[in-house]
Design brief:
The chain is α/β, with parallel strands linked by helices. It has a single domain, classed as 3-Layer(aba) Sandwich (Rossmann fold).
């Protein structure tokens, strides 16, 4: 039997939500997180510090990204966690990484999925009602989880993408 391949996930707009997701996903995936330089430097130096209901400790193995040139060519999934007002800008900046890949939106606001659909055929909408915060550079807190995260195919048929 062949060993399972770890998926490669790119998180765009990684602040409190995106970095927390990166920390949680790092145990099962190769995670690249497009984040502010202050977070990127801290994560490169010591890993991502997490505290709260999703665990306490330092998570290694997350690869900080500060521009499209840092993104590997073989990304399996993209998750956009940028503020809704930044959706178009981040999609434009990372258009090459998004095109042709299933892309999920875990963002506040409306209209984000429509914007992402301009860049890829398979858009996955999602909700996450969890108390995320940034405690400092490369340091996040997850204080409470009100409900489980929900994801669903928004466009493009792409149900098979959720089964990967």
């Amino acid at each position: 039997m062949e060993p399972l391949k770890r998926p490669t996930i790119l998180i765009l707009g990684a602040g409190a939500v995106g970095l927390s997701l990166a920390g949680k996903l790092a145990a099962v995936a190769t995670v690249y997180a497009a984040c502010r330089p202050v977070h990127a430097g801290a994560i490169r130096e010591r890993g991502l510090v997490m505290e709260g209901v999703w665990g306490d400790g330092t998570v290694g193995g997350i690869v900080p990204v500060t521009g499209p040139a840092d993104v590997p060519p073989a990304v399996d999934f993209v998750i956009v966690t940028a503020k809704g007002t930044g959706t178009r800008a981040i999609c434009e900046e990372y258009a090459g990484a998004i095109r042709g890949r299933p892309t999920a939106s875990l963002q506040n606001g409306i209209g984000n999925e429509e914007i992402i659909a301009e860049y890829t055929d398979t858009v996955i909408g999602g909700t996450v009602t969890t108390n995320f915060s940034v405690a400092g550079p490369g340091h996040v807190r997850v204080l409470s989880e009100s409900a489980p995260m929900h994801l669903g195919v928004w466009s493009g048929g792409g149900g098979e993408a959720l089964g990967r």
